[in-house]
Amino acid sequence: STQSRSSAASDVYKRQVNASEPIVVAVHNEAISAATELSDGRFAVASVDGDVDVFALDNPTERITLSHSNEVTAVTALADGTIATAAVDGLIRIWSADGAGEPGEIDTLGAPVTAMALLADGRLATASVDGVIHVVDALPGASEPLVLPGHTGAIRSLFEVRLADGLLALASGGDDTTIRLWDLATQSQLRVLEGHGDIISSIGALPDGRLVSTSGDGTGRVWDLSVPPNRPVTAPHDWNVSAIHSWNNDQFITGGTDGKVVLASTSETSEPLVLTQHLSLILISEPTRQEAI
Asked: CA of 235: how far to CAs of 193, 269, 273, in Å?
């Protein structure tokens, strides 16, 4: 099953893969800002009203509420069963699984928290409206964070991704329209991914390791991180491309004023293949299956 979350709705939808209709649970009276599944199967759903409701889908009326005096921007389940929440007051709070007692606090950012992610080593990556990332131990009172400056404006999403060489990197995206990859071991920026025309709203990964991102520009993009960022691009034609025709899946055939007929692909890992070379320019490229065989 999959869970969707929305900043413009106050209900939680959980759609079963084989069901025609989602399960709808009314949670908050204001917009939902974040949600996560806990290790025991419950859900923690945060709202701009400052509350985080924790409940099981099979008994949604039986719930505990983690109350904040400010808008909650992120919620994360920690390995020990506790719950981390982030808010615009700049604090990370660590709550017990049953909500009992007062939460512990982590106060290093000093600015509204806009994103948070649990890392594989158990630490928390947090980011703020001023474009700074802090990596801290997921413990109340944690201090002396690893600081990663680089973004301009708020950071909206953090996601840990494994690169082709096995390195775990932290991906961050925000209002400056860039996605940045960080090596936490060396505290260095590995690369910058540019292409979106508006804020980066979310980052994730596909099963094959490619990075995916969504943006305020209305698009989602898929990034192949195995391709070297500075790989030179060699134009398959010497002069003007005068014709193009789509082919199988992501392939296409082009013809040019240089007389070349080229089979190319949108895949960044494939190289263009020159099929033939004419002595004069190509005006029309309309291949048939027989011609391609």
From this structure: 22, 15, 11
Q: Which two tokens mark 249?
A: 């899946």
User: Reduced to 3 states, what is the DSSP secondary structure of residue 242?
Assistant: strand
More confident residue, 128 or 1: 128
Residue 180: enclosing H or E segment and its boundaries? strand 179-183
The CB density around residue 141, as the number of other CB atoms within 10 Å, is: 11
Residue 200: closest CA among 179, 184, 182 = 179
Please, which residues have CB within 8 angstroms of residue 278's CB and are 6 or more apart in sequence?
Answer: 259, 260, 261
Quote the longest CA-to-CA distance of the chain.
82
Which alpha helices (H) appear in 116-160, and where do they start and end? none
CA 77 to mean position of chain CA atoms? 18
Tokens of 246: 């789509």
Q: What is the pLDDT of residues 182-229, one digit of tens each?
A: 999 999 999 999 989 999 999 999 888 889 999 999 888 889 888 776
**Which of 85, 79, 93, 101 minimizes the C-alpha distance to 140?**
93
Using DSSP, state whether 5 is helix, strand or coil.
coil
Reduced to 3 states (helix: H, G, I; strand: E, B; else coil), residue 237 is: coil
Q: Which residues pair with 212 in a beta bridge?
A: 204, 222
d(CA 155, CA 148): 12
95-115 pLDDT, tens digit per residue, is 999 999 999 999 999 999 999
